[in-house]
Specification:
The protein is α+β, with helices and mostly antiparallel strands. Helices cover 47% and strands 21% of the residues. The protein has helices spanning 3-7, 26-42, 55-61, 82-100, and strands at residues 16-21, 45-50, 67-70, 73-77. It is elongated.
Length: 102
Protein backbone atom coordinates (compact mmCIF):
# COMPACT_ATOMS: atom_id res chain seq x y z
CA UNK A 1 0.00 0.00 0.00
CA UNK A 2 2.81 2.44 0.85
CA UNK A 3 5.37 1.06 -1.56
CA UNK A 4 6.43 4.54 -2.68
CA UNK A 5 7.69 5.23 0.86
CA UNK A 6 10.07 2.30 0.64
CA UNK A 7 11.63 3.53 -2.60
CA UNK A 8 12.72 6.92 -1.32
CA UNK A 9 13.41 8.53 1.98
CA UNK A 10 10.58 10.70 3.26
CA UNK A 11 11.76 14.08 4.54
CA UNK A 12 10.04 14.72 7.85
CA UNK A 13 12.72 17.12 9.09
CA UNK A 14 9.99 19.33 10.58
CA UNK A 15 8.99 16.46 12.86
CA UNK A 16 10.63 16.64 16.31
CA UNK A 17 10.70 13.27 18.09
CA UNK A 18 11.91 13.26 21.71
CA UNK A 19 12.42 10.15 23.80
CA UNK A 20 12.57 10.58 27.57
CA UNK A 21 14.77 7.86 29.05
CA UNK A 22 17.02 6.86 31.93
CA UNK A 23 20.21 4.86 32.27
CA UNK A 24 19.85 1.08 32.50
CA UNK A 25 16.37 0.96 30.98
CA UNK A 26 16.20 -2.00 28.57
CA UNK A 27 12.83 -0.85 27.19
CA UNK A 28 14.44 2.51 26.44
CA UNK A 29 17.27 0.82 24.54
CA UNK A 30 14.76 -1.13 22.43
CA UNK A 31 12.67 1.99 21.78
CA UNK A 32 15.76 4.01 20.82
CA UNK A 33 16.85 1.35 18.34
CA UNK A 34 13.36 1.29 16.79
CA UNK A 35 13.28 5.10 16.52
CA UNK A 36 16.75 5.25 14.93
CA UNK A 37 15.70 2.66 12.35
CA UNK A 38 12.58 4.67 11.51
CA UNK A 39 14.62 7.88 11.30
CA UNK A 40 16.75 6.36 8.53
CA UNK A 41 13.62 6.04 6.41
CA UNK A 42 11.70 9.15 7.44
CA UNK A 43 14.47 11.68 8.26
CA UNK A 44 12.85 13.22 11.35
CA UNK A 45 14.70 15.04 14.13
CA UNK A 46 15.42 12.67 17.03
CA UNK A 47 16.51 13.67 20.52
CA UNK A 48 17.03 11.72 23.73
CA UNK A 49 16.62 13.26 27.20
CA UNK A 50 17.61 11.51 30.42
CA UNK A 51 14.86 12.25 32.96
CA UNK A 52 17.24 11.75 35.88
CA UNK A 53 19.05 14.95 34.87
CA UNK A 54 15.97 17.04 35.68
CA UNK A 55 13.95 16.53 38.90
CA UNK A 56 10.77 17.80 37.22
CA UNK A 57 11.09 15.27 34.40
CA UNK A 58 11.94 12.48 36.85
CA UNK A 59 8.80 13.32 38.82
CA UNK A 60 6.68 13.56 35.68
CA UNK A 61 7.79 10.35 33.95
CA UNK A 62 9.14 8.31 36.89
CA UNK A 63 9.34 4.63 36.05
CA UNK A 64 7.17 4.97 32.94
CA UNK A 65 10.07 5.58 30.55
CA UNK A 66 10.52 5.43 27.69
CA UNK A 67 8.11 8.21 26.85
CA UNK A 68 8.13 9.43 23.26
CA UNK A 69 6.71 12.73 22.11
CA UNK A 70 6.18 13.88 18.54
CA UNK A 71 6.11 17.65 18.13
CA UNK A 72 5.39 17.94 21.84
CA UNK A 73 2.49 15.48 21.91
CA UNK A 74 2.97 12.28 23.90
CA UNK A 75 2.64 9.30 21.57
CA UNK A 76 4.23 6.35 23.39
CA UNK A 77 4.77 5.45 27.04
CA UNK A 78 6.60 2.37 28.33
CA UNK A 79 7.70 1.30 24.85
CA UNK A 80 7.30 2.04 21.16
CA UNK A 81 4.78 -0.01 19.20
CA UNK A 82 6.34 -0.64 15.78
CA UNK A 83 3.02 -0.80 13.94
CA UNK A 84 1.70 2.41 15.47
CA UNK A 85 5.01 4.19 14.85
CA UNK A 86 4.93 3.17 11.18
CA UNK A 87 1.33 4.36 10.83
CA UNK A 88 2.15 7.68 12.47
CA UNK A 89 5.19 8.33 10.28
CA UNK A 90 3.50 7.15 7.07
CA UNK A 91 0.58 9.50 7.76
CA UNK A 92 2.99 12.38 8.37
CA UNK A 93 4.82 11.55 5.13
CA UNK A 94 1.53 11.49 3.18
CA UNK A 95 0.53 14.86 4.65
CA UNK A 96 3.95 16.31 3.76
CA UNK A 97 3.68 14.99 0.20
CA UNK A 98 0.21 16.48 -0.14
CA UNK A 99 1.41 19.85 1.12
CA UNK A 100 4.39 19.95 -1.23
CA UNK A 101 2.47 18.58 -4.22
CA UNK A 102 4.88 15.73 -4.93
Amino acid sequence: MFGWLWRRRADLSRLQVVMYTRQGCHLCEEAWTRLKQARRRYAFVLEQIDVDGDPALAARYGEEVPVVTVNGKERFRGGVNAVLLERLLAAEARMQTTKTGE
